[in-house]
Amino acid sequence: MELKTHLTQHYKQMLDVAIKEAQKGLLEGGIPIGAALFHTDGTLLGKGRNRRIQDDDPSLHGETDAFRNAGRQRSYSNIIMVTTLAPCWYCSGLIRQFKIKTVVVGESVNFSGGVEWLKQIGVEVIDLQSEECISMLGNYIQNNPDIWNEDIGEE
Q1: Phi, psi (rounded to 5 degrees) for 102
Q2: For residues 47 and 64, what is the distance between their CA atoms, to the nearest angstrom?
Q3: pTM of this prediction?
Q4: Could you tell me if 125 and 108 are in contact, meaning their C-beta atoms sit under 8 angstroms apart?
Q5: End-to-end CA, the chain
Q6: Do residues 86 and 108 touch, judged by C-beta distance below 8 A?
Q7: Which residues touch 55 (CB under 8 Å, ≥6 apart)?
Q8: Contacts for 20-24 with beta carbons within 8 Å, 24 or more apart?
Q9: For burial by CB atoms within 10 Å, which of 29, 34, 93, 115 has the most?
Q10: Helix (H, G, I), strand (E, B) or coil at 48
């Protein structure tokens, strides 16, 4: 039990990096989704946020921004993807393509994305059910439904 509590605290500290990115995105007028990549030893490799609105780039999701900012890695098997929201299919494909084995999710209440598929293919998905993440994105969706639907590919 003590090890699980320690790991949960470790993951929450990692999530805090992604939350700060999401908050930056919101202040910039974007969608509040942040992400970060860590080595399993806890070293931060890269962080980013959804910048689809800010940069007018539909491919710039939080996970892809963090992935790009982490730079080339020889292997991704010892990398943890941390994201404030369950990854969409696009970002789930990135996780699958590079064989990232662990994904820490801030929340999957507002959007469940590809979580079940990731689990089926052997990715360890840790959903922290963060109230801060749930309310931050929930409020955004309520106030910006058209932008949100565009982000997730809904007409």
Answers
A1: -130, 130
A2: 9
A3: 0.94
A4: no
A5: 45
A6: yes
A7: none
A8: 21/47, 21/48, 21/49, 21/62, 21/66, 21/84, 22/49, 22/50, 22/62, 22/84, 22/133, 22/136, 22/137, 23/136, 24/49
A9: 34
A10: strand
The SS3 call for residue 80 is strand
Residue-level length of the chain: 155
Q: Which residues are catalytic, by number? A: 63
> Which residues, at least 6 apart from 124, have a Cβ–Cβ distance to it below 8 Å?
101, 102, 103
What is residue 117's predicted lDDT score, i.e. its pLDDT?
Answer: 97
Residue 77 carries which side chain, given as an amino acid letter?
A: S
Give Cα 48 to chain centroid, integer Å. Answer: 9
26/47 Cα distance (integer angstroms): 15
Its sign, for the CA torsion 82, 84, 89, 90, is negative
| 10-residue stretch averages of pLDDT, the chain, 155 residues long | 67 97 97 97 97 95 98 95 97 97 97 96 97 97 91 80
Joined together, the tokens standing for residue 15 give 């999530």
- DSSP symbol at 85: S
Spatial distance between the Cα atoms of 60 and 64, rounded to a whole number of angstroms: 6
